[in-house]
Amino acid sequence: MTAATASNLAEAFREHRDAFGVSVTFGEREITAIVAEAEFGRELAAGGFAETGDIQCKTLLTDLPAVPTIGSHAAYNGRTFRVQSVAIQPGSLIGEFTLRPAKR
Q1: 3-class DSSP state for residue 46?
Q2: Strand blocks (E) in the chain
Q3: Which of 7, 9, 42, 93 is geometrically suited to a Cys-Cys bond with 53, CB 3.0 to 4.6 A?
Q4: Spatial separation of the C-alpha atoms in residues 57 and 74, rounded to whole Å
Q5: What are phi and psi of 100, to 5 degrees?
Q6: CA distance linking residue 99 with residue 73, whole number of Å
Q7: What is the pTM of this model?
Q8: CB contact set of 61 (below 8 Å; sequence gap of 6+)
Q9: What CA–CA distance (Å, rounded) separates 95 from 9?
Q10: CA–CA distances in Å: residue 72 to residues 25, 49, 75, 86, 99
Q11: pLDDT in tens, 44-68
């Protein structure tokens, strides 16, 4: 990927993040990320409703001081999560992390 392409991709992601992003805290660092709830990760609570499910979090890698590791803590929407998986392609600007509620 050329430097110009990488710059354009990062700028497009920033625009999307700024318009639709939410706050997520990895360790002590609060960042704005794109978050989507994964339906397959839901567990039913009393009454048949899921309290919370797994979430997918996408962020620019430059927003993080270090790449979160599997098992590390994250916070989103007042809840504590653990990093379940890390997906970063070689040379990628964006990281995708699956976060699972810490109580599960």
Answers
A1: helix
A2: 22-26, 29-37, 55-60, 73-76, 79-87, 94-101
A3: 42
A4: 10
A5: -115, 140
A6: 9
A7: 0.79
A8: 67, 88, 92, 93, 94, 95
A9: 13
A10: 11, 27, 10, 11, 10
A11: 555 555 556 789 999 999 999 899 9
How far apart CA 21 and CA 14 sit, in angstroms, is 9
Name every residue whose Cβ is closer than 8 Å to that of residue 26 and which is 6 or more positions away in sequence: 64, 68, 72, 73, 74, 83
Model pLDDT, residue 51? 58
Structure tokens at 11: 């700028």
CB 103 within 8 A of CB 82: no
Pinpoint the alpha helices (H) of the chain.
3-20
- Round the CA-based radius of gyration of the chain to a whole number and report it: 15
Residue 42 CB partners (closer than 8 Å, separation 6+):
50, 52, 53, 54
Which two three-digit tokens encode residue 88?
Answer: 């970063």
User: How many Å apart are CA 23 and CA 4, to the nearest integer?
Assistant: 28
Region of 45 (left: φ > 0; alpha: ψ -120 to 50; beta: rest) is beta
